[in-house]
Amino acid sequence: MNGTWRLTPKQIALWLLFGGPVVVFAAWAIPDNAPLFFKTLLNGLTLASLYFLVASGFTLVFGLMRNVNLAHGSLYLFGAYVGWFVGEHTGSWVLAVAAGFLSAAVVGLLMQLLVFRFMEGQDLRQTLVTIGLSIVFADLMLWTFGGEIYTFDPPAWIYGSTSLPVIEKFPTFRLFVLLAAMAIGVALWCFLAKTRVGMMIRAGVDDRGMLSASGVNVQLVFATTFAIGAGLAGLAGVVGGTALSISPGEDTRYLLASLVVVIVGGMGSVVGAAIGALLIGLAEQFGLAYAPTYSVVFTFVIMVVALAFKPRGLMGKAA
Amino acid sequence: MSAARWRRAMSASVGVSMPARSADVPRLVPLPVLATPKTFWFERIGARVKPRHLVVLAAALLYPFVASPFFAYQIGAQALALGLIALSLTFLGGYGGMVSLAQMTIAGFAGYLVAIFGTSSVAGVSLGWPWWLAAAFALLGATVLATAIGWLSVRTEGIYTIMITLAVGVAFFYLAQQNYTVFNGFGGFSKVAAPELFGIDFKQPVPFYFVALTAALAGYFLVKHLVRAPFGIALQGIRDNPRRMASLGYHVTAHRVAAYAVAGFLAAVGGLLMVWYNGRISPGTVNLAQMIAILIIAVLGGMRHPIGAFIGAVVYVLLQNFAIDLFVRERFNLVIGGVFLSIVLFSPDGLLGLWAKLRSSLSQTRISQPKRRRP
Predict the structure, then answer these.
(1) How does residue A227 score in pLDDT terms, banded at 50, 70 and 90?
(2) Is CB count within 10 Å lower at the N or C end of chain B?
(3) Which of A 94-123 lie inside 8 A of B, CB atoms?
(4) Is residue B219 within 8 Å of B82, Cβ to Cβ?
(5) Among A153, A182, A155, which Cα is nearest to A83's?
(6) What is the pLDDT of residue B365?
(7) With an 8 Å Cβ cutoff, is A186 touching chain B?
(8) Which CATH number covers residue B264?
C-alpha cells in the first residue's frame, strides 16, 4: 500500500459498487423511519464492538501461531461464568471483568503450554485438538453450571438508558460497550505498534522463522499472545454476558461470529478484525430489522463476496 | 499432460537404442519390447482380494440375519449411512488434503431436496414427484451445491478450508431454520419414507439394511478405484505438493473442485439414506454438532484408508447407543469429545493408525545385541 491517498480506478469502482446500494438504502430508510434506522445503526455498532472484542483475540492467535483456535468460544463462555461467580461473591462488576479476563488467559496459557507447544507446524492436528477441547469444555461447563441463563448485575452508573438526539432512549450499557471496544481496540493497536512485545508479535505474524532466528524466545511470545487472545475472549464474555446473557449455546454463537469476522477481515490483522466486525455486526442488525427472514443470508453473502475478491480477507496478507 | 499420455510416451521409448558417444563404448543393441502378459480383470481382482476382505464381506452380508432388528436397523443401517458421509470426508480430507466440515450440509441438503421434490407431511411445499425422480434430482442438486462450496473453498488453502466450510455449513443451518417457504423452518419435513418396490417395503429393517449396504459398498469401491486411477493419484499429488503439480501441468483448482463434486455425490447418497432412515429431516440434522460428528467419525477411524470411515461410524453409533449403560446419559458429548481428543493427541491416524502401530510392534523381530567382552 503506497503512502499517498490517491485511489486507483479499480478501488473507486469497488467503493461505488458496494457503497452505492448502502447510500441508496440509507436515503430511503432515514426519511422512512429515522429512529428505527439510528437505533439499528447503534445496535449494529454495539454488536460489532462485541464481535471485535472476541475476534481480535482469535485473529491474533491465528496470525501468529497459525492455530485456528476453535475453542475460542468456550474461552468466551468460561470467562463469562467465572466473571459471574466473582461478581456475585464480591458484588463488584469491575472485578468480574478482571476475573473473566484472567481466568480465560490462564486457561489459554495452559492450553498453549501443555498441548499446542508440542504440535508446532501441524496445523490440521491443532485445529482438531481445539475442536475436541471445545466439545469437552462445553460439556464440562454444562455439567458444572447447568443449563439456565445467568444475567449480570452491572453497577447503576452504566445501567439504565440515556437519551440521544434522534432516538429517545438507548441502553447506556450498549454505549459503554461501544466505547470500551474502541478503547480496547486502540490499546491493542498501541500494544502491537509501540511496544517491544508487540513488535515481536507483528514480526512473528510476518515471518516466524526469522523471528526465531533473530534470537527471540518464540515460545514466550506465543504463550503471551495466546494468553492475551484468550483473555480478550474472557473479557468479551463478561461484557457480552452483561449486554445479553450467558447460556450454554453462546460459545458456539460467538465462535461462529468471530470466524466469519476473521474470514472477512483477514487473518492476523486486528484492523481487519475491526473492519470485519463492523461489516458483519451492521449487516446482522440491519438484516434483522429490515428483512428478518433473510438476515443470515446477508452475512453469508458478504462473506462470499469478500472471499471472491480477496481470498485472504479484506486486510489479509497477500500470500 | 495426462497420466495416460505419459505412460504411452514412456512405454514407447522402450526398445530405442542409445547412441554411442565414442568408438570405445559398445553400441547397445535394441532390447526387445517386453510383452506385458494379458491379465483378465477377474485375475487382477483375485490377486488383490485377501481372505480378510471376504470374511468382512460375508459378515456384513449375514449380519441382519443373526442380529436383532434393533441392531440391524439402529446400529447397522445408521452406521452404514453415517459411514458413507464420513467416507466422503475421508476421500476429500485424506486423499485430497481438504478437510471440509460441510459434508453433512450436503447430505442434509440432499435429504431436504428429497422431501421437497417428493412426498412428505408438509403438503404445501412438497411437489409430490415419484420417489426415483425426487431422489435423482436430490443427488444432482446436492452435487451442484458441493461443487459450488468447493469452488468457494479452493480459492483459499489449507486450514482456511475448515473455517470456510464451517461457516457455509452453519449459514445453511440458519437458512433452513429461518426459511419457511422452502425449508419449512424449525419443524422440517416428516413422513419422508423409503419407497416400496417390487413388493418389498424398504422401511423394514432388513431390506433397508441391504440398501444401505449396497450403497456403502458401491461408495467404498468407487473411492478405492478412484484413488488408484490417474485422477486420484493426481489428487494425492496435489495434496502433497500443489506447486509442483501445477508446474507439471495439472490444473490444480479443477482437480480440487472435481474432488469436492465426487465427495459431494457420496455425501448426497449418504444423506438420502439418512433421510429414509430417519423418516424426517429438520435443521437439527445439519446443525453444528452433526457437522462435527462427521469429522469425529472420520478422524476416529483414520483418514488413511476408506474403511476407516465405516470403522469410525460403527464405534460412534455404538457409543451413542450404549453410553447410557456405560456412563451418565447426558454426558455423551463429554465421552465422545474425550475419545476424539485422545485419538487426535495420541494417535492422529485414528483406530487404523493404532492397529498399524500394534501390528508393527508385534511383528518386530528382536535384533540381539552382541555381548561386549571385557578384555
Answers:
(1) very high
(2) C
(3) 115, 123
(4) no
(5) A153
(6) 55
(7) no
(8) 1.10.3470
